[in-house]
Input
Amino acid sequence: MGLHGPCVVLRLAGKLSVTTEPVLQRRLEQAIAFRSPPWIIVEMSGLSELRGTDLGLFDEARRRIEARSGRFILVGPQGLPPAVSEVRPSLEQALRELVDEGVGRFHR
Output
């Protein structure tokens, strides 16, 4: 987990599994609690596999973030259902978009 200005960026790599899912859940909860409204980007280009349960985890995080007027963007995977999240092809594009929207004016 890292900060890029007012955005929290989670970088995922390898394979998500039953044993790593609770760790990801905790990281998402930490990121959501870090700033209000939460602006979170999950960089997934390093994942080797994405399961349906992973999508459910991201969908739940997106709902919680949007309920707090935040933004949740996935980076990397193309072809995800729009209901899951906004998807961008690169971290740079996602960050640029949030900066252009004036995300920097939000502070804790």
User: Anything to note?
Assistant: The two ends are 18 Å apart (CA to CA). The helical segments are 21-34, 52-67, 91-100. The first strand starts at residue 2 and ends at 4. Strands lie at 2-4, 7-15, 39-49, 71-75, 86-88.
